[in-house]
Amino acid sequence: GNKVTIQGYLTASFSLAEDEGTPDHFGVSDKDVIVCSTRFSLLLFDINGLRLQTFHYCPEEIWRLWVDPVHVIVTCDAGSLDIYAWEKRSLLLRKCYRLRNRNYQQMSGLASSVILSSEEAKFGGEHLSS
């Protein structure tokens, strides 16, 4: 039959400081930036382990992390979702939007209410909300 062999090799290795917490989720950008989430932080490192950026979430807990060539998406225990975008010609992220579930405690079924809170969401000095 057909046999596929995949070979990998170690390109870099580094350890996190104890105060950074235990990484729960990982992703790698197409710029070779390592993105990981701990319980209360989103951390960015270059391929050699140099910390590039930190986003703190305490008291919220990070539940999931998705990384692609354009965005990083983080979901939290309070029902919020943060969307980051990669800066052009840079290894850093900028926070674009936060979608927050106003009725997380009372939510039933598929009914939910979401607020878009972002500088980009301003229109005429007013925040857009639904």
UniProtKB/TrEMBL annotation:
Name of the featured protein: F-box and WD-40 domain protein 14
Gene responsible for this protein: Fbxw14
